Amino acid sequence: MKILQTSLAFIILFFISTSLKAQIPSGVYFSENENETHELKINDNYIIHTVYESSPAKFIMTAGGFYTLKDGIIHVDLEFDSDFAKDSLTELDIPYSMNNGKLLLKASSELEFEKSESLSQELDGEWLFATRGPDTGQERRGEESARKTLKFLKDGRFQWIAYHTETMKFSGSGGGTFSSKNGVYVENIEFFSKDNSRVGAELKFDYEIKGKDWHHTGLNSKGQEMYEIWGKR
């Protein structure tokens, strides 16, 4: 009986350790290849991979969607792919492993990612553009809408992506660092698909959380007044 209990305990510990090894901790990961930066944003079920250059600034690609992990494979059901017009991809299967806290991805080439430092801020999370403000009960866009603009905020990094889930049309993306504190939201742009010359710009906005909505006001990148309402995804 004791031998059986010991064997069962060993089996349970084996499966627990195997399961833990298979998980990818949520966070933001970077892989640097000469002047090319690969950035991964990962939460419990969503992943975004973006590639860009810094000097000179050049946006290369971004793709993302909901993912599952099984047998050392990241399976991604893509919601967007900036290269869809060229590659027609709607899903990805990427072999991966974790080694001493580093994430290894084996696609066309092997990439080694290091996790950035965790940083918790008030606006952290995934947000979908809902409507222009002020809120007067007007129609809103949300999860049921095929046309989406997603803003992903985590560990001091932000990215917005505009896309259409039915046609896979990609309309644009930008990202970099952000801070949100005492009602002031600041973005520092490190990549921008529509205009590489915008890299290096700092944008400052006011924000207020009302229920599950983020009210976002200030001047946009063109210096025009804006009032956006984003809903928590």
Polypeptide structure, described:
This is Membrane or secreted protein. It is built from 2 helices and 16 strands. It is globular. Strand 7 (102-106) and strand 8 (110-115) form a beta hairpin. An 8-stranded antiparallel barrel has the order 1-2-3-4-5-6-7-8. It has an 8-stranded antiparallel β-barrel with strand order 9-10-11-12-13-14-15-16. The termini are far apart. The protein is 11% helix and 58% strand. Residues 4-21 have low confidence and may be disordered. With 233 residues, it is mainly beta. 24% of the residues are buried. The protein has 2 domains: 24-115, Lipocalin (Beta Barrel); 125-232, Beta Barrel (Lipocalin), CATH 2.40.128.
Labels describing this entry:
single chain; 233 residues; mainly beta; Lipocalin; 2 domains; eight-stranded antiparallel β-barrel; 2 helices
Question: How would you briefly describe this protein structure?
Answer:
With about 230 residues, the chain is mostly beta strands.
The CATH topology name of the largest domain reads Lipocalin
Approximately what portion of the residues adopt beta-strand conformation? Answer: over 45%
CATH class of the largest domain, named: Mainly Beta
Give me the secondary-structure category.
mainly beta
CATH superfamily of the largest domain: Uncharacterised protein PF14869 family, DUF4488
How many structural domains can be distinguished in the coordinates? 2
Envelope shape: globular
> Based on the structure given, which CATH architecture of the largest domain is correct?
Beta Barrel
